[in-house]
Amino acid sequence: MTPRTLARAVSKYALDKNGIDIRILDLRKCSDVADFFVICTGSVDVHVKAIADNIIDKLTERGIKVWHKEGLQALSWVLLDYVSVVVHIFRPEIRERFALEKLWGDAPVDVVE
To answer: For 3-112, which CATH class?
Structure first.
């Protein structure tokens, strides 16, 4: 699976759980951190958890394991690292505070609806 295809799959799995304001940032020309960031919002902590769990479960079913994960206890910002694709699932106030879309403002962005 290419990094772009993986980012789109992650976006679909977030959307399946009603992820809010899903964006795919293409970092390939901006950074070596990852090829893509997928950023979305969950309305409350249980929503953030549902989105994260769905992404992990659906990708695991496809044989793709998360390399690193953080934030599954606090659930204000969950990070799922698939090496070429890094997923950020925020509660609204945390997403606004860290403003990753502004930090990576040079990256082309796809809005997922």
So the answer is: alpha beta
Q: Which tens digit of pLDDT belongs to each residue from 19-72?
A: 999 999 999 998 888 999 999 999 999 999 999 999 999 999 999 999 999 999
d(C-alpha 33, C-alpha 42), whole Å = 24
User: What's at 76, amino acid-wise?
Assistant: S
CB 91: neighbour CB atoms within 10 A? 20
Alpha helices in the chain (DSSP H): 3-16, 45-61, 92-98, 100-103
Q: Report residue 92 as tokens.
A: 């609204």
The residue ranges of every structural domain in the chain are: 3-112
